[in-house]
Amino acid sequence: MDAQHQHKAQGDNAQGENASRDRVETTRGEAVHDTTQHQSVSAVLRGVVDQAEGDTISVGRIIEALGERAFGLVLILFSLPNSVPAVPPGVAGVFGTPVLLFGIQMLLGHKRPWLPKSFMRREISLEKFKKLIDVAEPKLQWVERFCKPRLTQLFGVVGDRAVGLFAILVAICVLIPFPGTNIPPSAALVIVAIAVIEEDGYLLILGSIIGIAGMIYTATVLGASYHLIRAGLSSWFGI
Fold first, then answer.
1. In this structure, what is the dihedral angle of CA atoms 64, 67, 70, 74, given to the nearest 10 degrees?
2. Radius of gyration in angstroms for the set of CA atoms belonging to the chain, rounded to a whole number
3. Domains in the chain, number
4. Which domain holds residue 112?
């Protein structure tokens, strides 16, 4: 009986620690959000990095910091790591899975991104995250210089759901473990997400074209790999 009470107490303590940590993450994220409202995408991401503390930053803190700009910014943030060369092993899954979930939520018409608490608590090296933003910031600023509201009729409920479907397809490309299949679609999703935030229809069309080209490349790689594997099995085992 005593052992049962002790086990229950340990479980309650663990739940209390997790709840307390979640409250701290939310408070820190809201503080960053307050200072990054009404800024450009590159400035918002820089603010998330500059105000982070410690050696790691959690996924939950990043999402909370992005605040009301929600889906557009999280799609940019979680697509950036997979849109640059030499991505460390395991990064595609860490960042590709949220993109898939966010895409599904946008397709269903959700207004704010959601992730399971277990995923929100996952931590990323702050040093690596800063390096990523350092590399991406000049490129984002270059794109932002050309952004302005154009072809705004492309945006709205239907447009957001179309972007959600696009994000799902990109995430599938990212999660397929083949070299080079993640970069073009992820870079295209970054462009599309910036276009949504800025309501720039020309940029949306450009990002969509790049994304479709990247998906065609992924499908080509998959098809070639399938035929190579089938040919190998046929020669070895007569299948």
1. -50
2. 20
3. 1
4. 2-237
